[in-house]
Amino acid sequence: MNELELFHFHLERAIYIFNFQDKQLIETWINQLNHSLETDYIEACLTAAILELSSTHSDTFHWIVDNLTDCKACVQLLEAVTRFALKKLIQHGFIPGQDFSFTADGKILLMENTKNLIIQDAAPTDGLLLEKVLLTPQQNHLFVT
């Protein structure tokens, strides 16, 4: 099996296991992978699987982001999406501290119309990812109470 076929095999396996939405199963499987594969390879495979699920199985994608908060691939993906959103906000002329701010957990707090503008300016799958890092005051209130 060549490298591309092997990566595709592990990608399909990750998607399959993620779809069970079983945190213990996923963590056990990732720990098992850590004994036989390079960390960077595992993270790349898991990130690819999460991205694939964002466009094919959105319910599993949401479950992963909401429940696997200590998964390195998930954390890195959300950090990259946050940087992407920040870049988009600045490109649109929004000013940090004035038009948007950050929550204690690193999400971007902004007004509904600003959020809608950024999401509409993105590809549909990017919009799903952006929804996980962009919060309106109403959404933030729901998470705080």
Describe the structure.
With 145 residues, the protein is mainly alpha-helical. The chain has eight helices and three strands; from the N terminus they run H-H-H-H-H-E-E-H-H-E-H. A three-stranded mixed β-sheet has the order 1-2-3. A hairpin with a 5-residue loop joins strand 1 and strand 2. Helix 3 packs across helix 4 and helix 3 crosses helix 5 (72-91). The longest helix is centred in the middle third of the chain and has 20 residues, at 72-91. The model has no long low-confidence stretch (mean pLDDT 92).
Short key terms for the protein model shown above:
145 residues, mainly alpha, 3 strands, elongated
Summed over residues and divided by their number, the pLDDT gives a mean of 92
- Poorly predicted regions are none
Kindly name the structural category: mainly alpha
The dominant shape is elongated
Strand order of the largest sheet: 1-2-3
What would a concise description of this structure say?
The protein is mostly helical. Helix content is 70%, strand content 6%.
Give the arrangement of secondary structure elements.
Elements: H1 3-18, H2 23-34, H3 39-56, H4 58-67, H5 72-91, E1 100-102, E2 108-110, H6 112-120, H7 124-131, E3 134-135, H8 137-144
Parallel strand pairs: 2-3
Antiparallel strand pairs: 1-2
